[in-house]
Amino acid sequence: RWRRRVVGLVGESAAQSSQPLLSELYYIERALASRAEMRHGSVDQLTEGEISAIILPDGAQISEGARARLADWVEDGGVLLRFAGPRLAGGQDDLVPVDLRRGDRNLDGSLSWARPQPLTEFDDDGPLAGLEVPEGDVVVHRQVLAQPGPQLAERTWARLADGTPLITGAAQGKGWLVLVHTTANTTWSTLPLSGVFLDLLERIVALGPGATM
Fold first, then answer.
1. For a surface tag, which of 7, 138, 157, 195 has the fewest beta carbons within 10 Å of its beta carbon?
2. How many Å apart are CA 200 and CA 204, to the nearest integer?
3. CA–CA separation, 48 vs 86, rounded Å?
4. What is the distance between the alpha carbons of residues 45 and 42, in angstroms, rounded to a whole number?
5. CA 111 to CA 10: how far, in whole Å?
6. What phi and psi values does residue 12 have, to the nearest 5 degrees?
7. CA torsion through residues 51, 166, 102, 115, sign
8. Quick check: 213 pLDDT over 50?
């Protein structure tokens, strides 16, 4: 039997936006267009269907009930992929694989001693092992930082050159909870413009169950 990944996107299609290139879903839709079936909708709509993974952009506003439903869906075997941004940086959120610091780190700020950071190679034993990162292809200007802790190293799937996590993930029940610590569009990084963006999306979505076609 053939199996195909079905990806749920929380929110409206980028085509419905007046500025599609600024939409958080534009680059995700473009990357996955030929690799998966995509469905847009609310959390309630998406969790009722046969979905391999759900992608939640930072700007999507969801209720506490929808948040609880997403948590249950992950426990039952779903893959939730989240992207960071101003909303996540500015509030408390427990639907993440690691504890986060409040606020974000701006590597372009005039008062920052740091500089924009490139993505380093993926760990050989991690979920993204084997994916190639062309030198200088991914540069991060802003990110949400993880709190140091005993589980942070094992939950870090991708790092920047300074060692800070760019992607973290953890098993939750039968499913997976994954966070990209920067935005899904190009406001905080060049990740969505990189060829590795498609590869890592595909690898993370593949953690979820396929849909029988």
1. 195
2. 6
3. 29
4. 5
5. 35
6. -85, 160
7. negative
8. no
Q: What is the pLDDT of residues 39-83, one digit of tens each?
A: 999 999 999 988 999 999 998 989 999 999 999 999 999 999 999
Please give the structure tokens belonging to residue 136. Answer: 């200088």
Q: How many CA atoms lie within 13 A of 134 on its CB side?
A: 9
Using the structure block, give the residue that is written with the tokens 């060829």: 195
Q: What's the token pair of residue 50? A: 């046969």
For residues 167 and 201, what is the distance between their CA atoms, to the nearest angstrom?
Answer: 11
Handedness of CA 187, 190, 193, 195 (dihedral sign): negative
Strand pairing class (165-172; 175-180): antiparallel
* CA proximity to 122, closest of 133, 107, 112, 135: 133
Contact 93, 67 (CB under 8 A): no
Q: Retrieve residue 67's tokens.
A: 């948040």
Name all contacts of 67-72 with Cβ < 8 Å and 24+ positions apart: 67/43, 67/95, 69/43, 69/44, 70/43, 70/95, 71/95, 71/172
Nearest to 183 by CA among 18, 27, 16: 27
Which one-letter amino acid corresponds to residue 124?
A: D
* 3-state per-residue secondary structure call for 174-194: CEEEEEECCCCCCCCECHHHC
pTM: 0.91
Beta strand pairing call for 117-118 and 139-140? antiparallel
Among 6, 155, 185, smallest CA distance to 79 is for: 6
Q: Are strands 53-56 and 6-10 parallel, antiparallel or unpaired?
A: parallel
Q: Provide the pLDDT for residue 10.
A: 95
